[in-house]
TrEMBL record:
NCBIfam families: kdsB, PRK05450.1-3, PRK05450.1-5, PRK13368.1. Activates KDO (a required 8-carbon sugar) for incorporation into bacterial lipopolysaccharide in Gram-negative bacteria. This is 3-deoxy-manno-octulosonate cytidylyltransferase. It is found in: Cytoplasm. Its EC number is 2.7.7.38. It comes from the Bacteria. Keywords: Cytoplasm, Lipopolysaccharide biosynthesis, Nucleotidyltransferase, Transferase. The keyword RNA-binding does not apply. It is an enzyme of class 2 (transferase). Belongs to the KdsB family.
């Protein structure tokens, strides 16, 4: 069981809501460069690569000094893409999936997720969550909610508000799309039985949960916004300006 840790940033050019998203500019740099830069500030990785099926993204990553690997354009899920990358790098015992549309991803959040995984090698996966802010609506299906037990293990993920409550002081936690996988588990992930939870919610991680695997949840106090749409990009650009990054 290797202690080496591989960070993987999947980046697709084809996106229904935002084509070419990884190459969208934030200041003078493309989004994928910001994501790579902030991920590289993590102390956890022994290697960090971008996984893409597009030559334009591949060339941009190489141009700014990053490492990029080509993957098949035919993968049905993001996890299948991560599995292909893991096959190319057999000496890494923990594989971390960082979303390519998280240009402000905090290094300490990555380190928290990875630290939880290294502490619990018997847990198949770890991920992250953050408390909802007062400006966020738990009923928004694009903001995935998670509930977890007192030991930090996920009970369920949903696009609906969970736990279901209309009390003013109800606590909701937003799931963040970062995963650290135990290698052996990841390599057999796509052989797990189909999950009706996954189908109903359209959330891939529910396949692991319904089949009895453990997903640890690292709770962060805050997290920067990911980019799902051009409107999100404008918010991120304003935030980067405010922080003096651009």
């Amino acid at each position: 069981m290797s202690d080496q840790i591989l960070g993987v940033i999947p980046a697709r050019f084809a996106s229904t809501r935002f084509p070419g998203k990884p190459l969208a500019l934030i200041g003078t740099k493309p989004m994928i460069q910001w994501t790579y830069h902030h991920a590289s500030l993590s102390k956890s990785f022994h290697r960090l690569v971008v996984a893409t099926d597009d030559k334009r993204i591949h060339d941009v990553v190489l141009a700014f000094g990053g490492e990029s690997v080509f993957t098949s354009p035919d993968h049905p899920t993001g996890t299948d893409r991560i599995i292909e990358v893991a096959e190319k790098y057999p000496n890494y015992g923990i594989i971390v999936n960082i979303q390519g549309d998280e240009p402000g991803m905090e290094a300490n959040l990555i380190d928290g997720v990875v630290g939880l995984k290294t502490k619990h090698r018997n847990w198949e996966m770890t991920t992250a969550a953050v408390p909802f802010t007062s400006a966020e609506d738990p009923k928004d299906p694009n903001k995935v909610k998670v509930v977890f037990d007192n030991n930090g293990r996920a009970n369920y993920f949903s696009r609906s508000p969970i736990p279901a409550s209309f009390k003013a002081d109800a606590k909701y936690f937003r799931h963040l799309g970062i995963y650290a996988y135990e290698r052996d588990f990841l390599m057999h992930y796509n052989q797990l039985p189909a999950s009706d939870w996954e189908t109903v919610e359209s959330l891939e991680q529910l396949r692991a949960l319904q089949n009895g695997s453990t997903i640890g949840v690292y709770l962060s106090e805050k997290a920067n916004l990911g980019v799902d749409s051009p409107a999100d990009l404008e918010v991120v650009i304003a935030e980067f300006k405010k922080k003096g990054l651009i």
